[in-house]
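ARCHIVE RECORD
Type: protein–small molecule complex
Small molecule: tryptophanyl-5'AMP
Source of inputs: curated submission
Record status: active
Notes field left blank by submitter.
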Amino acid sequence: MDRIFSGVQPTGNLHIGNYLGAIKNFVEIQKRKNIIKSYYCVVDLHAITVWQNPKKLKNDTLETAAAFIASGINPTKSIIFNQSRVSSHAELAWILNCICRIGWLNRMTQFKEKAGKNREQVSVGLYAYPVLMASDILSYKSTLVPVGDDQKQHLELARDIANKFNYDYGVNFFPEIKPLIFGGATRVMSLRDGNKKMSKSDDSEYSRINLVDEADIIRKKIRKAKTDSGSIMDLKSLDDKGEFKSEVICNRPEAVNLINIFCATENKTKRDIIEKFMGKNFSNLKESLADSLINKIAPIGKEMKKMMQDSSYLESILKEGAEIADEDSKKNLFEIKNIIGLN
Ligand code: TYM
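STRUCTURE (tokenized, with ligand):
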């Protein structure tokens, strides 16, 4: 039996990378039988590791909850809440800060990317970000964590922290954390540069499809997406497992990205898509991909906008979710404090 936890930052511009890499999988997992509880958290405390406009943060928090529900997460089956309402997350994070080693954090590639040359000027919170993630997961003794590929290293760190806690205190309190990274698009790349991850913070609107984009914008962005001068590749580009060969990913990253997006939106294999389009021009693939995205993504955006018109429903979901999460996490925190000798 498993407990599920995952989080999404309320930093605006939710895009198809967030959806295909993570949120769509949250919805899939709901169908599984061996789940005790699922927690889907709007991680507002993670968001403030970089500057956020307070009004926008509040709005983006509601919008992220709207994205969860519009995508198909059922608030009567899963617990939807925002992190800052449940104080155990921050409290356990402090305890885990005392378990985690500085050397482990120094290896985090996402911190290196985000801090860049500005390392001395970024917040301490940005550095300790992965410890708060570990706390999110461990607050509920969660075992399965559905995420996109970019969070893999953070989850390995969370597992190391849990193991060290168990070892240091001679207990078997925290269970093993397993990342759940699946689907056709675990790493969606920018539509402008196939070597860069699709990101909420990219300056170019044309680099991503936002969940709230209207149909005509989706089509325009896909039509403008960067491709190469070749035609669509054939089946020789796939390995025995039906995945793209590494040289194909390296030489044709934009083409690979569009096909991956297509596979994920349509729940099809790469073989299915390639068999249909091989040898054709990108314009054929792009028109069909735009149709598919308009079909699958635009209704989610429409529903999100509708929900945002009356925020009282979203507020009530977040409040009720936080009450359950608070109770569940407090029980664990009490036991953790007992183990440490803090109560
Ligand atoms: P965030 O808000 O950056 O992203 C939310 C989810 O979307 C996935 N994702 C992508 N997947 C595929 N392609 C992309 N281009 C892409 N961009 C983002 C992310 O992998 C993520 O699953 N640290 C997390 C939030 C978090 C969390 C947690 C996750 C906080 N606590 C505990 C799991 C468990 C983050 O920044 O997500």
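CURATOR ANNOTATION: The pocket of tryptophanyl-5'AMP is lined by residues 5-9, 17-18, 21-22, 43, 46, 133, 136-137, 145, 147-148, 150-151, 186-188, 197-198 (CB under 6 Å).
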